[in-house]
Amino acid sequence: MRQNNRLFNFKHLAIALMACQSLGFDAAAHPASCKLLSADRVFDGMEVQFNKSVLVVGDKVRAVGNYADLRGQCATRYNLGDATILPGFIESHAHITFQNVTHDKVLEHGITTAQDTGGPLLPPNGGKGALRLLSTGPILQAQGGYPLNIFSPDDTVGGFDKVGLAIAANATESEVRAIVQNLVGNGASEIKIALEVGGEAGAPWMLPHGDAPVPEAPWAVLSPEQVRWIVSEAHISGKKVLAHVGENNGFQIAYSAGVDTMAHIPCAAIDPVLLHEAVNDGMKFISTIDTLGSCGQSLYDNAHAVGHVYQAHAGDGLEFPLIYGSEIAHDNVPWGINGEELHLMLHLSSGETIEFPDVLNVLRSATSQAAAHLDTGIQGLGTLTADAPADLIAVKGNGLERFKLLEYPDLVMSGGKLVVNNFSPSRKPHH
User: Fold this and answer.
1) Strands of 417-421's sheet, edge to edge?
2) Which CATH class is domain 89-381?
């Protein structure tokens, strides 16, 4: 009997091992962390594909393809139907930390990566179920100038933990370069400078903030030589320079020094010849048109001029010059994707008629193009390509035609983790 019991146990052990091996093969074919999402429309960061599926494994996108080809690789499937899947949006001009905006709220409304411009310098963080947040650190400015004169009027010097860091008029080249080196060494995603002389009618920075009156313009700005030192040192370190400019004088200084990006479409009228030259030379503009709408017609004229230069020279290889940014944390714009910002960008950058490539330009400016401009080194950021971070959103309906839908995504994924999900898993075949 004892021998028979041993035989019986060995048989069960063999069966158990076979079962484990079988389960192992299934686990390999269907990773527990995988998700397969299918929809009528998939914008992959560059182009729109119809009736496709996105396979996510762990925190990465594995593939975009046909449902029939991918279904065998994942058992957790979401068939969204009449819906649109897109990469999570990238906000290139935010003040989230400085204004104490809750990261989760921004993420829930479709922004998966954001760049804070101005405020405490923080190392990059987030990205896996949390808002990926980049930081430029404080805005480099002239002593007595913007933004400290508005947001910290009692602090003329600022610092690395403040909204601005003042550079004295007599600061030497080595001193200026050392400041840039410090910012880069502590994780600054870009270097932001202010060349704001003040005085633009309707500009938000010309309105009182608190009890302090708005200082009389013109305000002190960095010298052209100081700006050249900043740009040179930033470029040596592989970082771009972002400039807050509101009018023609500041624009001229920034352009002459080789500044890469305007933090805003300027509020006051810019010399059309100068503006055309800058766009042709590859200067980029973070839009922020919605939040600066009170600046009036000059703002819209500048944005339209930027779009007009692109339309005239796109055939020559000129890149789309606008980068999506809504200045999250301002009270007059959504703390997430801003449909009106997208709408304004589309209408002001298109030709006489709006064509589908114009829509794609705007969507790219908030996804793949924004990621390329930030140059984070994160492979595939802003896209749904193989090995890209699994940062994506989905909306019910056609988000390519109705930008407003994007403000309230029905699904948000950050690094493969579902943050918002109004869809139910299904095993039904897709198309």
Assistant:
1) 60-65, 48-57, 34-43, 77-87, 392-396, 411-414, 417-421
2) alpha beta
Q: What single-letter DSSP state applies at residue 205?
A: G
Instruction: Give the SS3 label for residue 411.
Output: strand
Which tokens hold the place of 40?
A: 């009528």
Q: Residue 133's closest CA among 155, 102, 160?
A: 102
Q: What is the pLDDT of residues 366-419, one digit of tens each?
A: 999 999 999 999 999 999 999 999 999 999 999 999 999 999 999 999 999 999
Q: Domain spans of the chain? A: 1-30, 32-87+386-431, 89-381
Residue 431's CB is within 10 A of a number of other CB atoms, namely 13
Strand partners, 215: none
Amino acid at 9: N
Q: What distance in Å separates the CA atoms of residue 340 and residue 327, rounded to the nearest whole number?
A: 13
The answer for residues whose C-beta is within 8 angstroms of residue 321's C-beta and 6 or more apart is 279, 283, 284, 285, 306, 307, 309, 310
Alpha-carbon distance of 331 to 202, in angstroms, equals 16
Q: What is the pTM of this model?
A: 0.91
Q: Given phi > 0 = left and psi -120 to 50 = alpha, else beta, which region is 374?
A: alpha
Cα dihedral sign, 45-51-57-63: negative
CB 234 within 8 A of CB 226: no
Which 3 state secondary structure label does DSSP give 88? coil
Give CA separation, 198 vs 4, 119, 157, 201, 398, in Å: 95, 20, 19, 9, 42
Task: Classify domain 32-87+386-431 at the CATH topology level.
Answer: Urease, subunit C; domain 1 (2.30.40)
Answer for the pair 227, 152: CB distance below 8 angstroms, yes or no.
Answer: no
The CA-based dihedral angle spanning residues 107, 376, 306, 164, taken in that order and rounded to the nearest 10 degrees: 80
